[in-house]
Amino acid sequence: MSSSPLTDDGGLSSSGTTHSLYASSMQEFKLFETQSNFYMIGWDRSGVYRVLKIDRLDPSELNISQDSTHYTKKECYELLKRIHEGNKATGGLKLVTLCYGIIGFVKFLGPYYMLLITERRQIGEIFGHSVYAVSKSEIVALQNSTLQCNIANSRDENRYKRLLCMVDLTKDFFFSYSYNIMRSYQKNVCNYETGHVLYEKMFVWNEFLTRGIRHHLRNTLWTVALVYGFFKQASLSESGRDFKITLIARRSRHNAGTRYLKRGVNRYGNVANDVETEQIVSEDVPEDHPMQISSVVQNRGSIPLFWSQETSRLNLKPDIVLSKKEPDYEATRLHFDNLVERYGNPIIILNLIKTKEKRPRESILREEFVNAIDFINKDLPEENRLRFLHWDLHKHFQRKTTNVLALLGKVAACALMLTDLFYYQVTPAMKIEGYMSLSSSSDADTGDISPHTSSDDDDSLEKKSSRSKNIAYEKCDVKPPRLQSGVLRTNCIDCLDRTNVAQYAYGWAALGQQLHVLGIKDVPAIELDDPLAISLMGLYERMGDTLAHQYGGSAAHNKVFSERRGQWRAATQSQEFLRTLQRYYNNAYMDADKQDAINIFLGTFQPEQGMPAIWELRSNSLSNGRNGEMSIAKDERPSWGVCFRRF
């Protein structure tokens, strides 16, 4: 439905100036209701007010229209007053709630529901752009309370609503109105995108919930894009210079779920527990000074084979089963093709699982994983072949003389030599030109700041840097940019505990290089006992615990970190045992409902009248059945342009 001037039962409309593109984002909204419609009023910091109308007379259909008029505060008040007068016979216009964005719309068996953010809290700031977490959300039924609907109050409908509420939006979901938080900093600089395409990225968890309103309005002005994972910042100092570390983990919505119910790869090449981790380092400088920024990205994800473990209430360690062997490893190949599209070459695989066991479990997957990599590499040119390193972390940790973190740090340093990291200098002129402003608008203009005709990324970035330098800051010494091409992909069995240790080692090695390229340190390395390394370890430990709770049901096992801090071994063993029990209980007794809730939220299962309910199926066969995992859509495959095969 296209946007049109808003009218109501009173037959009133208002005129004003219209614009095809909106200069700034709306961050606060008020929701009003009459018996026949909801009205949402939104305003931006420039004082422009807009109106959204949502029909309530047919709650089984999503009928939304946006007033094309831009109002002043006074004009908007007058409009609401006229709507109230026109609806006095049926109770008039009533305020429902103040809110901070629409999460989306969902329909089970009866009417549509609207999900709103009613409270938020700021958790950080990236280059002047605020990042928020959800403090409170609300589900509002579109159906008028005077209309009778047996389905709306049915037992199944209420059970679906309870399932949806199991996805706790106040934990580990975050968003920004003006920064594309679902994308790495390098992607935002190299290939700026806005609008619809951002919601279709693999890290936006409410893509399905916002699909209806986005398709109706052809913009994303009223919605927020929720990312699920981890966000934390720390302000540190070195040699008298202040800088900020931002650690972001973005969890993929594809093949998403819980530990034993989502393992391995699906037929589309999506792996379980696929998480992108980005480490950003930026120096704190006055606004009229150039800002130096460096970022590096790494990846974790389940072993890309068809394998499973049955949830068992009697066995803490269920057997690992290779459920399907593909002779051509097509799904595994698809997975690595997608990694190349996301990050470029080379793809470096760090496999941390056990090599030898009394009873083969992990080693079953190790052998098949090696076979898959060898098979795929046969068809690739030498320079694009997958780089595979097997490193049994458990075995090395058992050797008391081995410094696991130091050895992993050497592996990480080698990976960084192959991929490099991203470095970019933002001059004051760039800030004026809007290179750091990534606010969303209509989809009529993608706003790509990268000239797609160029074939050289570095040249393109240098041109942008020098152009801005000449405009407003001629004395600024602009350093040439650096680009990361390729990624380190780490896995163990769960991609939680051992993987998090390895990811910290990579972050530690990268931090030394990032501080060096920013000119804060003279050498591209920091010692493990350096206060900076210890502070970084705390960030990665918190991230590991958060990601482990999401996928595994307990905090991460942190033996390596505990030993590094000199924690008493007996206390560590007691803590590890309790976490094992917590993980076991959640996996055996809670994960089925949690998986159902995730499938409802993501739209991988959509309830239908006359069809079995999701709790009746209670089977992971959903991932390949009628309501199975969504495929990798064309609009999710990046158009790299100038940053070809790089992010």
TrEMBL record:
Q: Where, by residue number, does the polypeptide cross the bilayer?
A: 95-115, 404-424
Tell me the subunit arrangement: Component of the PI(3,5)P2 regulatory complex at least composed of ATG18, SAC/FIG4, FAB1 and VAC14.
**Keyword annotations:** Hydrolase, Membrane, Transmembrane, Transmembrane helix, Vacuole
Say yes or no: keyword Oxidoreductase present. no
Please give the Gene Ontology molecular function terms for this protein. Answer: phosphatidylinositol-3,5-bisphosphate 5-phosphatase activity
- Quote the PANTHER family the UniProt record gives: PHOSPHOINOSITIDE PHOSPHATASE SAC3-RELATED (PTHR45738:SF25), POLYPHOSPHOINOSITIDE PHOSPHATASE (PTHR45738)
Q: Which InterPro entries match?
A: Fig4-like (IPR043573), SAC_dom (IPR002013)
Stated name of the protein: SAC domain
Top-level taxon in the UniProt lineage: Eukaryota
Q: Where is the SAC domain?
A: 164-553
Task: Please report the record's description of how this protein sits within the membrane.
Answer: Peripheral membrane protein
- Residue ranges for the region (Disordered) are 441-466
Q: Which reaction does it catalyse?
A: a 1,2-diacyl-sn-glycero-3-phospho-(1D-myo-inositol-3,5-bisphosphate) + H2O = a 1,2-diacyl-sn-glycero-3-phospho-(1D-myo-inositol-3-phosphate) + phosphate
* A cellular component annotation (GO) from this entry: vacuolar membrane
Name the Gene Ontology biological process terms: phosphatidylinositol dephosphorylation
User: Which compartments does it reside in?
Assistant: Vacuole membrane
